[in-house]
Amino acid sequence: MADTSKVGFVFAFVVVPTIIFFGSVISILYFFGIMQWIIEKLAFLLRKTIKLSGVESLVVIADIFLGQSEGPMVIGPYVQNMTRSELACAFVAGLANLSGSTLGMYLSFLAAGNHAEELMVANSLLTATFMNATSAIVFAKMIFPETNYEAIMDAKHLKVTGSRHDSLVDAIMHGAFTGVKIGVAICAALMAVIPLIHAIDGFLFWIGSLVHINDYIATSSNKSFDGLSLEYIFGLIFRFFAFFMGLVGMKLCKWEACLGRRLLSMNLLPL
């Protein structure tokens, strides 16, 4: 687990440069056509194994490597002809996956420069990414099942568009600027969200001390929560999800605390 007391330092000198680097690498792979080839081959595998349409396969695989912002760009020319089910699948897959730059951020944050831990964390993150993609497909199809099969486009007419950059240097700089935008956005979100959450938690803790429930909350959760807070409230609301997942006792309390932080903030803070 990362030392959250050093989040500012880590972000300024480790995580943000990693995001910029991974953004450039993805852009280079796209410039040479390597990323397009990977996306097309994996999309073909999805079409044959779980019978997705061609456009769904392309966007789901693209989301794994490019994230929800740039992944849908590979199907830009086909969006106007997509069915409701295909659009839902594209949106859900985008929200379920992370870009390569964000994966690099998690790798730097969790491994902390340890090579052995980097390999372990990288394997876990890549496995989770592919699992997220297939799970997103299942949930999207459960909510919006395909009913208009006649409108589905034939996969043989689909092609991943090439790089729009004029040179390798242009591709590198575009990837770097994309990484900078992501890093600055994450830092800004941290600076805005964390103080706001602490302010609200301070007010709730004061309310809890007035009605004398903070000690009860701390004891019943075995110190997973210090008292009344937003994390505790959201943890209680979603407790039944953890129960149906088979979590009981202290695991349930820890899961509630993590879920509360995740719902309140962003992908980074539960770490």
Q: Could you please describe the fold and organization of this structure?
A:
By secondary structure, the chain is mainly α. The protein has 2 domains: 4-181, no CATH class; 211-264, no CATH class. The protein is 71% helix and 0% strand. The protein is globular.
Q: Report the oligomer.
A: single chain
Residues in helix, %:
over 70%
Number of domains: 2
The number of helical elements comes to: 11
Distance between the termini: 7 Å
The average pLDDT value, as a whole number, equals 75
**Unreliable runs, pLDDT <50, ≥5 residues?**
1-9
Reading the helices and strands in chain order gives: HHHHHHHHHHH
Strand content bin: under 5%
C-alpha Rg (nearest Å): 21 Å
E-strand count? 0
Shape: globular
Q: What is the makeup of the main sheet? A: none
Supply the helix-strand structural class. Answer: mainly alpha
Core attributes:
single chain, disordered N terminus, 11 helices, C_nuclsd_transpt, symporter activity, globular, CNT_C_dom, 271 residues, transmembrane, nucleoside transmembrane transporter activity
Summarize the topology.
Elements: H1 7-31, H2 34-50, H3 54-70, H4 84-96, H5 100-111, H6 115-143, H7 168-210, H8 214-220, H9 230-237, H10 239-244, H11 249-264
Quick synopsis:
This protein is mainly alpha-helical.
